[in-house]
Amino acid sequence: MYTVYVLYSRAFDTCYVGYTSDLSSRLLSHNELGTSNWTKRYRPWEVIYSEEYSTKRAAMQREKELKSGVGREFIRKNILKDK
């Protein structure tokens, strides 16, 4: 199984979209272990949304959709409306 996820940084009011086969390890990587300069600078991250897919291809396609303008609008209007 693959998980498409949306992370949110309250401190910086920004989102990150990704996919993984192990969400708990990936969240740990984003918050503590990772060295990516972009995700490091917006710590701490919290998972605010996730969807499960049976194939990597489907997860990658959904990640791409959520990273588009329409996907970002979906995140802001439906997921972040209460944040």
Average the pLDDT over all residues and give the rounded result: 94
Q: How many domains would you count in the coordinates? A: 1
Radius of gyration: 12 Å
Give the termini distance in whole angstroms: 28 Å
- Low-confidence parts: none
Largest sheet: 3 strands, antiparallel
DSSP summary: helix tally: 4
Q: How much helicity do the residues have?
A: 40-55%
Strand order of the largest sheet: 2-1-3
Oligomer: single chain
Give the tally of β-strands: 3
**Could you name the CATH topology?**
GIY-YIG endonuclease
Question: What is the overall silhouette?
Answer: globular
- Name of the CATH first level: Alpha Beta
**How much beta, percentage-wise?**
25-35%
The chain-level structural class is alpha+beta
Secondary-structure element order, N to C = EEHHEHH
What is the CATH architecture assignment? 3-Layer(aba) Sandwich
Summarize this, please?
The protein has 83 residues and is α+β, with helices and mostly antiparallel strands.
Q: SSE layout and pairings?
A:
Blueprint: E1 2-9, E2 14-20, H1 23-33, H2 37-41, E3 46-53, H3 56-67, H4 69-79
Antiparallel strand pairs: 1-2, 1-3
Helix pairs in contact: 3-4
Question: What are the salient characteristics of this protein?
Answer:
GIY-YIG endonuclease, 83 residues, 4 helices
Textual characterization of the structure:
This protein has helices spanning 23-33, 37-41, 56-67, 69-79, and strands at residues 2-9, 14-20, 46-53. The chain contains four helices and three strands, in the order ββααβαα. Helix 3 (56-67) crosses helix 4. Strands 2-1-3 form a three-stranded antiparallel β-sheet. It has one domain (2-79): GIY-YIG endonuclease (3-Layer(aba) Sandwich), CATH 3.40.1440. It has 83 residues and is of the alpha+beta class. The termini are far apart. Strand 1 and strand 2 (14-20) form a beta hairpin. The mean pLDDT is 94. The longest helix is centred in the C-terminal third of the chain and has 12 residues, at 56-67. The protein is 47% helix and 28% strand.
